[in-house]
Amino acid sequence: MERKAKKRLSKNKKKTWKKTDVQDVEDHLEDQRLQERTGGLLAEKTDEQLFFVDSTKPVEEPVPAKRSRRDPKPLKCHSALLPDPRIKPARVAHNIRRDNLKRKCAKKVSDIQNDVLSPTRKEALHNQVNAKLNRQTRIRSKKITPHAKFDLWGGEIDQTKQEDDDHFATVTRKKPVKLPSYHNKKPSSLPAVEVALPGASYNPTYDDHQQLLHVANKVEVKKLKVEEKILRQTDHMFPKADKAPTKQDHLQEMSAGLYEEEDDSEGEEDTEYTSINPAVRRDKKKTPQTRRKEKERKAKETQLKLEKLKRKKDTELFRIKSIQKDVTKSIKQHSEKMAKQQTKRAERKDKTQRLGSNKFEAPETELKLSDELVGSLRLLKPEGNLLEDRYKSMQKRNIIEPRKRVKVYRKYKLKDYKKPGHGAQAYMNSYKAKGKK
């Protein structure tokens, strides 16, 4: 960096005296002022005031000893115990006012002593105390050393507790898995094997067999009614092909009213302007007297309504007995409704519930017609399937959900391929056969 050249100015005029550099003089004067402020000028002070003789023994700094190669090095695992300089120290709360905490605690104690707590707060405190006591008793019971409370060499031992803890003692001291509440409950009270009607026997009586046929007939009639309903709501809703409307009928129906001649004699259009609101005549305009009467009438109506409401409230005070009767009646109706719901819920337990997307379909009644009955078991043809019967029974008892066989659908259509040269070979074979003839 080049030093700036000092300006050369002529000093024979007062005008140029102001441009003279006097910074060193200013610095000297400022230094003297500072010395006067801080204890006096240094040039006027003696050596004793400025210096002192240091007679203290110098502290010898310990010289680190040379480390030998045989000395054990610090273990790497101990480095985890050293503080990490990159981790910031934990922030400690520094603005907590202790007087606020003391005041809050004192207020809580005074509220408990004066019994000014709300019911919910009282219940919460009661639960806290009980929980603390239970926790203390539980800890004490764990610390108690178990000891025998019976004579080992005499008397009978109560085996009930020992039987309960057999699983805990044998299986590597593991507690048994806690089973859900519904594990030991049956999903349905229906029997696993339903006894068939007497008419299903291989040699039934006439009345029993007719009763079985009557039951099967009811099921078939119900199915026919369902099919008829579906037909009535689908196919029968539309006309047949001979009675169906044609294209000409549709065109005639759509063009109805388009080509009729308009009657000129019917209502001519009014060209006069008519407003939505009717015109108000001068003689029908309300006078101040009519307005005052209307206002008085409205005030009287409101007064009558208020009086009627007051009378109604007064009469309700004398209707306490009747109101009490209504309340008891409503409570009785509610209890009856709840009882009905409970009975319905109990009846629903015995019925088959819907567990999946498919509805349970009861199996068909297994029966023999009158001409198919035989008197011996050797000539009897079996009806139904035992495996299907068990499968349907589990569905009916809500053990498994009803299912349907999944149909196999092709993702793509099958293509027919013709081998190359297959047609030419067939043509040559037919040509050779003609030549032999």
Description:
The chain is an all-alpha fold and 437 residues long. The protein has twelve helices and no strands.
Brief synopsis:
This protein is mainly alpha-helical and 437 residues long.
Strand content: under 5%
What's the helical proportion of residues?
40-55%
Average of the residue pLDDT scores: 82
Describe the sheet with the most strands. none
The poorly predicted ranges are: none
Number of strands: 0
Estimate the global geometry from the Cα principal axes: extended
Q: Classify the secondary structure makeup into a structural class.
A: mainly alpha
Oligomer: single chain
> In angstroms, what is the radius of gyration?
56 Å
Helix/strand order: HHHHHHHHHHHH
Number of helices: 12
Q: Distance N terminus to C terminus?
A: 124 Å
Key terms for this structure?
12 helices, 437 residues, mainly alpha, extended
Give the helix/strand layout.
Blueprint: H1 23-37, H2 47-50, H3 98-114, H4 119-143, H5 160-164, H6 166-170, H7 206-233, H8 247-254, H9 288-317, H10 320-349, H11 386-396, H12 422-436
Biased composition (Basic and acidic residues): 291-307, 328-353
Main location: nucleus
Organism: Owenia fusiformis (Polychaete worm)
